[in-house]
Write a structure and sequence with these properties.
This protein is of the alpha/beta class. 56% of the residues lie in helices and 9% in strands. The protein has a six-stranded mixed β-sheet with strand order 8-7-9-10-11-12, with helices on both faces. It has a four-stranded mixed β-sheet with strand order 3-4-5-6. The relative contact order is 0.11. Its EC number is 4.2.1.1.
């Protein structure tokens, strides 16, 4: 069954669905479709995504204004510099960047270093540094250095952002208590006792209102939370602040046009200026690329030209610095809002910049009503939001928690640059440690023979430990030396060879299993390699050779490890979920749900159809006897059954043709413009994959009609990207089951709540999200 995903084939029902790689440049031939504005057929044909982009731009505008003001405050820059950067980032980076759905502007990740630059050089020189950083980013893009920026260890990047977040939160807490904002984590901590001692109750009330709204907003009904939490928090605090006469408020000193200014040259310390340019260029580039990757994950089918993205970011920073704005990066908060609001092209990002410009020019008086304590509360939440528990768990799982913690503490207690250097040095040391470390251990069997297993890298630095283990082998004892190593240098090899000769001189036999042999023997129990990868396709000319070699490897490497689990399941099963999926050999239910024996009750058939007595009996047994709370139907990309349907295979008299005839209603729904097919085409999936997604939606309807009492869930496995998508029936599209950035609420929770599902816990066990 050949893979056929992410092609540029359009939906059969709407020629306005454009090609995948560049939505905004594709010609539109029809005004039909749910995204066409009501302005007439000509408008719909010319601007097929105008309504979606217009509404998304309003949402992003409402998110961006308070955040831009707060970031300017935290950076120690003129407040209007945040709005200048927001406008430039939206328009320049939006038009020139390589990620069409990413939204750029001033970002919290640069506030600490900008504040240090302002304190050291003053604001006008800092804008020169911003412009110079933009030029460096353009050089990065032209020389295709984006791949190297992405090579920085994630633990260092995430630790840096967490350290910046902690520093912002600590500094702005002083303002919430009625004190002055501080730069640096140490100064902020030192100032907190004084701020608490001289507490200003109005400031605490206003800051507390913002924090409370930001914490609770996403728990409200979906219809309410359409309005951005930051906007609601700032507006509410501003209204409450009108009851107080002595509240410190935002002071703009003029309109957006008055704030435009040229950079100034430094009187001295050109070395520090150049170093500041390089620092901002590197951090802004990394943060922008990380944000672009996140956007790709939020909208499957979206692709980023990373070199072009650096060119766009560089141009935006150059312009922003030249006219008095803050440094610019791709901002994940605004980008996430843009994607969730349904944006289709880069027009949404550009338009939101236009709205910011109009707002800052026309409504100066409104901005100056905002209390500083309210912005401080917003910044506290922004800072806390940069410390992500998911990233801490990931660092721990990969053995990099020390790197993350060291970077975070270095940024908070020293400064950003030194914190990052500490993280990089520690990452290098840990890499060196892993490279030179070997783990030899001797095991003695009941028959008196020994096995010495050597794992890791075996270099000259590991020879002393290896020698100690080798010398502990009893004289005359037969021994197997199993080298499960990724590197074996000459010194270690010579030492092992010399010991082998000496030990064989005692009358014993020594068998050395070298790295490739060891890999073949252990791979079945250590990863997801195929037979061809770990057996080397050595089947000894027998058709059953591959299969039986796998059975032998199972007994050698796996059976004992899972024996306790299987013993516990010997008397019965109690799965948490049921999955109906395709019989395709590439679809592995227990792999894509990260489950083990007894977790998922599985039925696989051609095309994952919920038809026939066999599947009906399985559903009845799972939901009635086993009391499974949720049944999932999982389709996949490149499905041969769906390709057969499209090719007319359901008209044949073969067993396969008769089976596919059961799916004719699915084909008719697809041909009649099923909403899931329209959304799938928009997301870049080809015809067969669109049909496969419609098939999943239709099978869910059939399951509901059976009234089994279990909840249902639709999944789609994109083989090419190895990602699992979940059906959001309210939106009529497949989305990634991932946590919403900054909210801690998953798409799965939102979907379950929207449909009244009560089996979210079982769905989480199924998807392991």
């Amino acid at each position: 069954m050949p893979t056929h995903s992410h092609s540029s084939t359009t939906s059969p029902t709407s020629n306005s669905e454009h090609r995948v790689q560049d939505h905004e440049h594709a010609p539109a031939e029809s005004g039909r479709g749910e995204h066409s504005p009501p302005g007439g057929s000509w408008f719909g044909r010319t601007f097929p995504h105008a309504r979606a982009d217009f509404s998304a731009s309003i949402v992003v505008f409402l998110v961006a204004v308070p955040l831009s003001l707060g970031i300017a405050v935290a950076s120690g820059a003129p407040i209007l510099a945040g709005l200048i950067a927001a406008v430039v980032g939206a328009v320049v980076a939006g038009l020139l960047g390589g990620s069409k759905l990413q939204v750029s502007g001033p970002a919290a990740g640069l506030t600490v270093i900008v504040a240090e630059l302002v304190n050291t050089f003053g604001w006008q020189v800092t804008t020169l540094i911003t412009a110079g950083a933009g030029v460096l980013q353009i050089v990065f893009g032209l020389t295709r250095l984006s791949r190297f920026a992405q090579a920085i260890p994630p633990a260092v990047v995430h630790g840096m952002l967490a350290g910046i977040g902690a520093t912002i939160a600590l500094g702005q807490l002083n303002v919430v208590f009625g004190g002055q904002a501080q730069t640096g984590g140490v100064n902020s901590i030192a100032a907190l006792p004084g701020a608490i001692a001289n507490l200003s109750w109005p400031a605490l009330l206003l800051g507390g209102i913002v924090i409370a709204i930001m914490l609770t907003w996403n728990r409200l009904p979906a219809k309410v939370t359409v309005v951005p939490a930051a906007l609601v928090a700032i507006v509410t605090a501003t209204v409450v602040s009108l009851a107080f006469a002595d509240v410190v408020r935002v002071q703009l000193g003029g309109s957006l046009l008055d704030a435009l200014s040229l950079p100034a040259l430094p009187e001295s310390n050109w070395g520090g200026v150049l170093f500041g340019m390089l620092t901002i260029a590197l951090i802004a580039s990394v943060e922008s690329l990380l944000s672009a990757v996140a956007v790709e994950r939020m909208r499957p089918g979206t692709r980023t030209d990373t070199d072009r993205e650096l060119l766009g970011q560089g141009a935006a920073n150059t312009v922003s610095g030249m006219i008095g704005g803050l440094p610019i990066t791709g901002v994940i908060v605004r980008s996430a809002a843009n994607v969730k609001a349904g944006a289709e092209t880069r027009a949404s990002a550009v338009l939101h910049g236009v709205w910011i410009a109009l707002f800052a020019i026309v409504l100066i008086g409104v901005i100056e009503l905002i209390p500083m304590a309210a912005l401080a509360g917003l910044l506290v939440m922004m800072g806390v939001g940069l410390v992500k528990p998911a990233e801490i768990r990931t660092a721990r799982q990969h053995g990099e928690l020390a790197i993350y913690a060291a970077t975070l503490l270095g940024v908070v207690f020293l400064n950003l640059l030194e914190g990052v250097v500490i993280g990089l040095v520690l990452a290098g040391l840990m890499l060196l440690w892993r490279a030179v470390r070997s783990r030899p251990h001797l095991e003695q069997a009941d028959d008196g023979s020994c096995e010495l297993v050597v794992e890791g890298s075996l270099s000259f630095l590991a020879v002393p430990r290896l020698s100690r283990e080798l010398n502990s082998v009893p004289r005359g004892c037969d021994v197997t030396v199993r080298l499960v190593t990724d590197y074996l240098d000459h010194a270690a090899y010579d030492h092992l060879l010399a010991w082998k000769a000496r030990h064989e001189g005692t009358g014993a036999t020594v068998t050395v299993i070298e790295p490739e042999q060891a890999r073949r023997a252990t791979a079945p129990g250590t990863g997801f390699l195929t037979w061809g990868e770990w057996q080397g396709r050595e089947t000894e000319g027998r058709a059953s050779g591959t299969l039986m070699a796998g059975v032998a490897a199972y007994h050698d490497n796996t059976s004992e490890a899972i024996l306790p689990t299987m013993t516990g399941l010997a008397d019965g099963q109690s799965p948490s979920a049921m999955m109906i999926t395709c019989a395709d050999s590439r679809v592995l239910p227990h792999v894509i749900t990260h489950s083990g024996p007894g977790d998922v009750f599985t039925v696989q058939n051609v095309g994952n159809l919920v038809v026939g007595p066999g599947t009906a009996a399985a559903v009845e047994f799972a939901t009635g006897t086993l009391d499974v709370p949720i049944v999932a139907v999982c389709g996949h990309s490149g499905c041969g059954a769906m390709q057969g349907l499209l090719a007319g295979g359901a008209s044949g008299d073969s067993a396969l043709g008769q089976w596919l005839r059961e799916a004719r209603p699915v084909l008719r729904a697809y041909e009649n413009g099923h909403p899931v097919a329209v959304a799938a085409a928009r997301d870049g999936f080809g015809e067969a994959d669109q049909l496969a997604m419609v098939n999943v939606a239709m099978q869910l309807e059939m399951l509901r009609a059976q009234d089994s009492g279990a909840e249902v869930l639709g999944l789609f496995y994109d083989i090419r990207s190895a990602r699992v998508l979940v059906l959001d029936e309210a939106a009529g599209r497949f989305v990634e089951p991932r946590a919403d950035l900054g909210t801690g609420v998953s798409d799965l929770d939102r979907i379950a709540a929207g449909h009244g599902h009560g089996a979210t816990a079982a769905a989480r066990r199924l998807l392991k999200v």
